[in-house]
Amino acid sequence: MSKFIKLFAIALLFTACSKKDDNLSELVFVTSEGPVTYQIETATTREEMSTGLMNRKTVAENSGMLFVLQGQNEIAMWMEDTYVPLDMIFVNQDNKIIWIYKNAEPLSTQLIRPQTDEPLSAVIEINAGDVDKNGIKIGDTVQHELLNK
């Protein structure tokens, strides 16, 4: 019986320390209604950004993905192979939200381009409806360890 308990404990430890969990970090939207906290995955490499939230059937509540862009000013997002409708939040280099695209259509290959020429530091994808539910607006700011100057 003690062997079973040890094996169970080891399996539980490996599950708790999975790579996916290591990639989660806290992101805070500072809104006029107060701070809103998310546990998000980050995409910093070309491969991570290309994959994004593709092939996911769900995105947990108050979670999403942060695409770190580091000053790019020509960016296009799309929903190919993404099954979950998303809100996309575009953030400038001052960590201010400058454009929001709501309810992106799952599986669409339509390119979503921000209506600005301003360099971006990030795009954040969260569940569709969260922008309205949490009072996230253009002009609000975002706090995350990878966006700090």
Descriptors:
36% strand; 4 helices; seven-stranded mixed sheet; alpha+beta; single chain; 149 residues; Jelly Rolls; globular
Word description of this protein:
The chain is α+β, with helices and mostly antiparallel strands and 149 residues long. The protein has one domain: Jelly Rolls, CATH 2.60.120.1140. It has 4 helices and 7 strands. It has a 7-stranded mixed beta sheet. A hairpin with a 2-residue loop joins β1 and β2. The longest helix has 15 residues. It is globular. The N terminus is likely disordered.
Q: What order do the helices and strands come in, and which of them pair?
A:
Blueprint: H1 2-16, H2 19-22, E1 24-31, E2 34-43, H3 46-51, E3 63-72, E4 86-92, E5 97-104, E6 120-127, H4 130-133, E7 141-143
Parallel strand pairs: 2-3
Antiparallel strand pairs: 1-2, 1-7, 3-6, 4-5, 4-6
Helix content: 10-25%
Element order: H for helix, E for strand: HHEEHEEEEHE
If you consult CATH, what is the topology? Answer: Jelly Rolls
Whole-Å distance between the termini?
A: 54 Å
Tally of separate domains: 1
CATH 4th-level superfamily: Protein of unknown function DUF192
- Uncertain runs are 1-20
Spatial extent as radius of gyration? 17 Å
SS element count, helices: 4
- Give the CATH architecture: Sandwich
- On the 0 to 100 scale, the average pLDDT is 87
**Strand arrangement in the largest pleated sheet:** 5-4-6-3-2-1-7
Which of globular, elongated, flat, extended, rod-shaped describes the shape? globular
What class would the helix/strand composition place it in? alpha+beta
- How many β-strands, per DSSP? 7
Which CATH top level class fits? Mainly Beta
Strand content: 35-45%
Profile the largest sheet.
Answer: 7 strands, mixed
